[in-house]
Write a structure and sequence with these properties.
Blueprint lengths: L2 H11 L5 E2 L3 H5 L8 H5 L5 E5 L5 H9 L4 E6 L2 H13 L5 E5 L5 H4 L5 E7 L17 H10 E11 L2 H13 L3 E6 L10 H4 L4 H8 L5 E6 L2
Parallel strand pairs: 1-4, 2-3, 2-5, 3-4, 5-6
Antiparallel strand pairs: 6-8, 7-8
Helix pairs in contact: 1-5
């Protein structure tokens, strides 16, 4: 994407009512929406996050399928989720918004028990050992998720990375968390949840065309 195109999207994001773009300092010093997200969405419906939302396809389509829930796509790359934010506005999908910030700040953005579900869709697997601290299902990230999720909170991990799938599954079992469903190739299994197979991201379609299996884990933190 050219720099001019990026700048144009950044500018447009600033005009969207469904986009929030705080500075890191604003988050760290006391984020104004922490504990008040229901006021932002103007209802008491459950709040669902998509971490590393990319172009926002999953957030927007989940919002369409679940009008009784609120969805928030989070990514540091605003030029990417511009597409999802614009689509939501054009199609009148009012129960989805986008937040530009770093994922590691998630526990500063939401209060305890404020979130009902988390989707992690096609994260960078960070395969090198020295990158372990950046894996979005490592122990430290799971602790942050545990803080903001309610008692029955669910996490979904959908990835094309067999490494990420195996690493996460091993960690979850090792730490005694509750794995509700896991499969190494969701499109080959007729019992895969509909919300996993009915929505495909731009990159997921490319992976499928290459013949790469898509994996999925649904779990609850103990």
């Amino acid at each position: 994407m050219g720099s001019k195109n990026k700048l144009k999207r950044f500018k447009e994001n600033e005009t969207f009512e469904n986009v929030i773009q705080p500075t890191r300092a604003e988050v760290e010093e006391g984020f104004f929406l922490k504990g008040k997200w229901k006021e932002f969405f103007k209802n008491d419906n459950p709040i669902v996050l998509e971490l590393g939302c990319g172009k926002g396809e999953y957030s927007v389509n989940l919002a369409k399928q679940n009008p009784d829930k609120n969805f928030l796509g989070i990514d540091i790359k605003g030029a990417r989720f511009w597409r999802g934010a614009k689509t939501a506005i054009e199609e009148g999908v009012s129960n989805v918004a986008f937040l530009r910030t770093q994922i590691e700040l998630v526990d500063l953005i939401f209060a305890e028990n404020e979130v009902s579900e988390i989707w992690i869709t096609f994260p960078d697997p960070q395969i090198k050992y020295k990158r372990t601290k950046h894996r979005m299902t490592n122990t430290e990230f799971l602790k942050k998720y545990k803080l903001i999720l309610n008692e029955d909170g669910i996490i979904h991990l959908k990835t094309d990375s067999e490494f990420m799938h195996g690493y996460s599954l091993g960690l979850l079992h090792g730490e005694g968390h509750e794995v509700l469903y896991a499969h190494h190739d969701v499109y080959s299994n007729e019992y895969s949840p509909k919300e996993v197979t009915s929505i495909q991201t731009f990159y997921e379609q490319q992976y499928l065309e290459m013949g790469k299996p898509i994996t999925y884990i649904k779990f609850r933190l103990n």
